[in-house]
Specification:
With about 350 residues, this protein is an alpha/beta fold. The protein folds into 2 domains: about 180 residues, Rossmann fold (3-Layer(aba) Sandwich); about 180 residues, RecF/RecN/SMC, N-terminal domain (Glutathione S-transferase Yfyf (Class Pi), Chain A, domain 2), CATH 1.20.1050.90. It is built from 11 helices and 15 strands. The strands form 3 sheets. Strands 2-1-4-5-6-7 form a 6-stranded antiparallel beta sheet, with helices on one face. A 6-stranded mixed beta sheet has the order 8-12-13-3-14-15, with helices on both faces. The protein has a 3-stranded antiparallel beta sheet with strand order 9-10-11. A hairpin with a 5-residue loop joins strand 4 and strand 5. The radius of gyration is 22 Å and the shape is globular. It starts with a strand and ends in a 6-residue tail after the last strand. About 40% of the residues are buried.
């Protein structure tokens, strides 16, 4: 699974570009500000239906033009192709799948499952629980068929319960609490099983990247360990009514990582936190590959420049060994020993375009 054609028009400083990526490793080389990250952003638009750099779609359109378009062809496991198109015009976002308008971002995500590794990836370690929940839920969305329905149902019931809490109506909570408990336990079951698979692999990658073996992961469900969720809700009902929202449940879940009993964010240096986050993302890609018997697309933005030669090469070796299609941006292709990866293409990003390097290096 991956892109075999990518066309970009008027996305930030990329005025026009058309490339045929390698099915394995693609290096996007250019000076800072040349538009390397914009190419990744275009792929992200196709796979997620949004930008990773701006919440306002109008801002990513080239200021000299009224609209942008991104088009891609993605090969399926069966060898067929899906055509995806994105257009942003006058702030309006429209997507097409095989020539028909598509409104669900979840559909786009299922066509091009992608992971993004960015320079601020250490936020997965030191950031908020919400970031780690989103990380877990992305993985579950792609490997567990019933997860999306369970997640949507839980959040719908949670919204209803919170609305009743704001009305200070304890009597009306009974039926909603029953539904919330059922939905919460289903969602929690999916997450617990997924995290078990994920952390087993993450520990292996952390040992390889960081040389650290005494890593402990614990998934916190959003209520006290060993306590039935039903009892947790009952115990907090008075304070829930007073505050006007539900304090306990899967919407408060977190993935906690400790080393020698200390929080990873306190134990690890900034560079080590980035490598720890990479370990989690490599593990997530591996779980996807194992469960789906196919590979996701991985975008890596300027990470190699922040690592020393040994760790840069080790990370790239692990990334390549997982399989699938990878796009990496770098200011200099010499940062990577490309001879170690037989299936690769290099693209130079400059002057608003993207040019493929010929096999003779020109």
């Amino acid at each position: 699974m991956g892109l075999n054609l990518l066309s970009i028009h008027n996305l930030r400083n990329i005025e026009s570009a058309k490339i045929e990526p390698s099915a394995r490793l693609n290096i996007l080389v250019g000076a800072n500000g040349s538009g390397k990250t914009s190419v990744l952003e275009a792929i992200y638009l196709l796979g997620r239906g949004k930008s990773f750099r701006s919440a306002y779609s109008r801002r990513i359109v080239n200021y000299n033009h009224p609209s942008l378009t991104v088009f891609g062809k993605a090969e399926t496991k069966s060898g067929l192709f899906n055509s995806l198109g994105i257009q942003i015009s006058d702030g309006r976002f429209r997507a097409k799948l095989n020539g028909k308008f598509e409104q669900k971002s979840s559909t786009l995500a299922s066509i091009i499952p992608l992971l993004f590794i960015s320079p601020d990836g250490d936020k997965l370690i030191k950031g908020s629980p919400r970031q780690r929940r989103r990380f877990i839920d992305w993985g579950l969305f792609h490997v567990e068929h019933d997860f999306l329905f369970a997640w949507q149902r839980y959040n719908r019931v949670l919204l209803q319960r919170n609305a009743i809490l704001r009305q200070k109506s304890a009597a009306m909570l009974v039926s909603w609490d029953e539904q919330l408990i059922e939905a919460a336990l289903k969602l929690d079951h999916f997450r617990v099983n997924y995290v078990d698979k994920l952390t087993h692999l993450a520990q292996k990658f952390m040992q390889q990247l960081l040389g650290i073996e005494n890593v402990e992961f614990s998934y916190q469900s959003g209520w006290r360990r060993g306590e039935a969720f039903k009892n947790a809700l009952k115990a907090s009902i008075e304070s829930d009514i007073r505050l006007g929202f539900t304090q306990k449940g899967p919407h408060r879940a977190d993935l906690v990582m400790k080393i020698d009993g200390r929080a990873a964010a306190e134990y690890l240096s900034g560079g080590q936190q980035k490598l720890a986050a990479c370990s989690l993302l490599l593990a997530q890609a591996s779980v996807f590959n194992q469960c789906k018997q196919e590979s996701c697309v991985i975008l890596v933005d300027d990470l190699p420049s922040e690592l020393d030669l040994q760790h840069r090469q080790l990370f790239m070796d692990l990334l390549y060994s997982i399989g699938g299609q990878v796009f990496v941006t770098a200011t200099d292709s010499n940062l990577l020993q490309l001879t170690a990866y037989p299936e690769n293409k290099t693209f130079h990003v400059e002057r608003g375009g993207v040019i493929a390097e010929r096999e003779d290096g020109v």
